[in-house]
Amino acid sequence: MALPQRATLDDVARLAGVSRKTASRVYSEPEKVAAATREQVLAAARRLRFRPNTLARTLRRGGATSTVGLLIGEMSNPFYHAVAAGIEHELSASGLTLVMGSSDDTEEGEERVADALLSQRVAALLMIPSAADQSYLDGERQLGTPVIAVDRPARNLLADAVLLQNRAGARQAAEALLNAGHRRIAYLASRADIHTQHERLAGYREAMATAGLGDAAALEHLSDDDAEDTVARAALDTAEPPSAVVAGNNRMSVAVLRAARELETRPALVGFDDFDTADVLGISVISHDPLEMGRRAAALAVERIARPTTVPEVIELPTRLVLRGSESSTGLAF
Amino acid sequence: MALPQRATLDDVARLAGVSRKTASRVYSEPEKVAAATREQVLAAARRLRFRPNTLARTLRRGGATSTVGLLIGEMSNPFYHAVAAGIEHELSASGLTLVMGSSDDTEEGEERVADALLSQRVAALLMIPSAADQSYLDGERQLGTPVIAVDRPARNLLADAVLLQNRAGARQAAEALLNAGHRRIAYLASRADIHTQHERLAGYREAMATAGLGDAAALEHLSDDDAEDTVARAALDTAEPPSAVVAGNNRMSVAVLRAARELETRPALVGFDDFDTADVLGISVISHDPLEMGRRAAALAVERIARPTTVPEVIELPTRLVLRGSESSTGLAF
DNA sequence: CTGAAAGCGCTTACAG
DNA sequence: CTGAAAGCGCTTACAG
């Protein structure tokens, strides 16, 4: 069966008995069209099931769509989902639509997906950089598309960034454990090669050095891939396990709990990132607000779209130590 | 400062010394252009930082973009994030881009955002219906845009759907508790007005009736809004608390744990939906695969884009009972 | 407040 | 394999 033809503005104008331009005005500057004419046009549009074609409008207007691209490396971490939710929320408040792409965490994927988003002429590009270098975006930036890095800074690219105070947060985590009397405090991280983990590790080291425990390298358990469970088990299943652990992110915290349960070793724990059941489990964390991070990044995008020529800005969002008991030496609450 | 002008295909053709059409072919059917000519064009494109304008291409080609819209009610539930991740994954494998919109769970919002997505001429619309009625999409469906409902069926609209076996899953949950010897088994749900909760409640009732416990209305604790913690506390903080609970979704499971901890009442528990720390906590659940749900929905969209005229299909994905200890009468493992 | 012409950047027929 | 003309659906100047 043949599908009915999609109506165009011309069809609407013809049915309403006005010029094409008048029909167009009903959608772009309705207040400039006489009320009676407007009603006539809208009635015709309803009858024909007309919906203005945003593509054509944008093309004619010179390229600036009302979409904003978000490029994420890995879709599996709940932290990034929350960031995306915050972004979506803020954008929709400004009448913008979110277009998402994920690079599956490969260098080649990041550039390919960025290219696809930019070909759709997104008004701005938000990204969680995961490739080693973002200089491939420099041409686009010069053409006026704002680029905003989220959670990690872009490399070799002049771009705005919204980050966390990773170093201060991790320092706080270690200090909380030191204050509770611990000395053998381990730091556990997967994806240790990325910026956030660099910073957090540095914060942990600062706290340890300040406490006169500078030579803690044996207590650092780092992996460049996603093997949280392996790292956690390796750290805890030793002759002399640490009495306390700083977990580098939410997934590592859960991995520590899992390993602790299996091994019946119960180290004190402060984890970076809050998570769903941390309160139920009595786990102390370095908390921050991923929704807020997304909101701030989107707000920055909205501002850059309006005023493209400003100097790049770096926003660092604070973290907060939430004590729930697991920082003490009495072991976990579960 | 003036921004440099964006290069068009014309500029590239001129610099490469070929016709506009030849330059176009390099991007649409590269195998039909002589290798030497192709290299010449690509070199010119690189020099000019040219990126083909997808909008213009789509407009000329007759409307079908390579984007797919996803309309979500509430962005806050991790379940939907996982569904979205599955969708994104499957779409990108087919060279499609995901455009997301959230309705903030209002009827008016759903229609407004659907309209925005359709104005961008998405090739298909995936949605988690939250309004009471989706008949407003019928015109668009007749124009050939596939609509696929995810997690809940669309109402008053002929659309494909990818759902869970909610009823069977909830029945299994109640049966697991019955098998463990429980009789006073409560059912707790927030958002009790939506389709999934209807079905799950029905499954619970079936199991109870079969066990000769048909009159369990006093054990049903339902709320139409999001007040999980309130429902959980009300259900457990009574003179005669239930000995076991079926939680209607992941958030209710966590709310039960929280309430149980505060009240030191420790009912057995089987929750619908798995969640991050359920294994650590030893919580038995009705598990299913939100990523898979997203993947299937996206695959259906891809198929419908290719062959639009097929009859709507309803896919029901199975659930799986995962026993971790909390179904027994000995109380929670934490 | 309304209208006829031109054009946004690309691709589709139609020729060669 | 390459080219000159027309047009996708809309809006922007330019007139009235």
Automatic annotation (TrEMBL), chains A, B:
It holds the Pfam family LacI. Residues 7-61 form the HTH lacI-type domain. Coiled coil: none annotated. GO terms for molecular function: DNA binding. The keyword Ligase does not apply. InterPro entries: HTH_LacI, LacI/GalR-like_sensor, Lambda_DNA-bd_dom_sf, Peripla_BP_I. Keywords: DNA-binding, Transcription, Transcription regulation. The keyword DNA-binding applies. This is LacI family DNA-binding transcriptional regulator. The lineage of its organism: Bacteria, Bacillati, Actinomycetota, Actinomycetes, Micrococcales.
